């Protein structure tokens, strides 16, 4: 027997299945409740407030007696025992429509990407008009042979030309409809040409495509005019798969151990369709005019997009089902494009270095650079690429979700209401905050955490081990319910009616995350016989974008202590690489070559990595001499 649950503040009501948790019922109906752990009860983020009705809840160390007395429950550990009314507090919501912070270099990066394609413009599919001679008693070849001859006469030579049954079925009537004037859409694979569509008349002057970045945290869609090559518009939203888990591991577990593969696939495809639909509607473009999509994502996200079992990605020896994919029909995965549209996935390298990193190397130009370059994509995982025009090696480290908000009491993604910059007066310990969107803060995102930890360290609020100095005589340094903490904003200054703090456990989580990322850099360099001093340039990609403060990142030991001019922010290189590949056959070939050139090094079995990781669990590092500028600041 199921019950009805009404969710506040929206007032939506859902029917539950027998034994179904509040979290599962909400997710099934598209109501989002934050659940970093994918509903296993280990993160404590899916808090709801029971307003009316009876429910059965498992005990949780994440809830204090005061919380329980106020009706707070974990949605993943609570099943209804009657009809319920529950409130989803602001801290458990992902606010629909909130602005995603993507940095301020979008137009600059688009212009650079478009400029790089000049003279190389050739999309995945080709579309052009043919005026064929009508048949006669003297010229009595079949319609398909006539079409192939027309292609050859137009200078399009290939070993073989083929067509699917659906195209051949309509070929005869289409050719005659406009007096043998037809427009063909071709897919070229090696020396083979496939006629994937044929239309009456000349429709070659109008066509569009989509470039899609499927990130663990967010999904970005570009609507591209394939005639001009320009990006008409873009849209983005947080990946709705987050309700099934914050990171790739929890989503793999959800897909394989909780039977959620189909749900995860449907969630991401529906989101892409929704974003693309909004863009098409905004610009008055019919879906039948979109004939190509290129997707870029990490290996797990790509598997989930195609509905492929990701189980073996997380099991030693960590082998994905596929690292590269053939060009597939877009309808086969549920994309709402033209019936004959195709989808191409950027090629990956290994289980934890996917097409998004190939896209990043492509967009950065690292693969053509002399000298030694380091490319880093900082997110839930830290992916690293080292090399240049002669060789490329790559690795990944599990950084954890701290910089995306996971494991931090008031942590959140970079969206409206997130504290993105922090400065602390060393005399008064009063903070100065910059909030995305200019509103009252509701939490703190990755760049804000890095600033805050660096400032707290310099101000003496925390020591090199990340321990809070509770002897300081200041109201902002106190003992809270989770131990020692520093108050970033008082309740009356926030948008959630509660003090926003960084606790000592928060600091420890962030230090572990930065330690894993720095250890990844150091280990990869050591494996190939180099040091940070040998690095000519460092490209930074990923969600931090334009908001990361290099000096503060060095102070906490996230980035190496190198001159600031060696660092370059690139923003979302995953979508940029997809855009380049969409426009240019040359760049698609480069992407395939990059994926084949990259040598993957598995850090999880490296003794050097564990040694480096342990050494990096201090601020900025156990070996302070590796950070001379920080040593100088500390006197």
Would you kindly provide a brief summary of this structure?
The protein has 16 helices and 29 strands. The chain has 635 residues and is an alpha/beta fold.
Topology:
Blueprint: E1 4-8, E2 12-15, H1 22-28, E3 47-52, E4 55-57, H2 65-69, E5 72-74, E6 78-80, E7 84-87, H3 106-116, E8 125-131, H4 143-153, E9 160-163, H5 165-177, E10 181-189, E11 192-200, E12 208-214, E13 218-225, E14 231-238, H6 248-257, H7 261-283, E15 290-297, H8 299-306, E16 328-329, E17 342-345, H9 355-364, E18 373-378, E19 381-387, E20 392-398, E21 418-424, E22 431-435, E23 443-444, H10 446-458, E24 477-480, E25 483-489, E26 500-503, H11 504-527, E27 537-542, H12 550-555, E28 567-571, H13 573-583, H14 585-597, E29 598-600, H15 607-615, H16 628-633
Parallel strand pairs: 1-7, 9-11, 12-15, 15-17, 18-27, 20-29, 21-23, 27-28
Antiparallel strand pairs: 1-2, 3-5, 3-7, 4-6, 8-10, 10-11, 12-13, 13-14, 16-17, 18-19, 19-20, 21-22, 24-25, 25-26
Helix pairs in contact: 3-13, 6-7, 9-13, 9-14, 11-15, 13-14
Q: Your description of this structure?
A:
The protein has 635 residues and is of the alpha/beta class. The protein has 16 helices and 29 strands. The strands form seven sheets. The protein has a six-stranded mixed beta sheet with strand order 14-13-12-15-17-16, sandwiched between helices. A six-stranded mixed beta sheet has the order 28-27-18-19-20-29. The protein has a five-stranded mixed beta sheet with strand order 2-1-7-3-5. The longest helix is centred in the C-terminal third of the chain and has 24 residues, at 504-527. The termini are far apart. Residues 95-104 have low confidence and may be disordered.
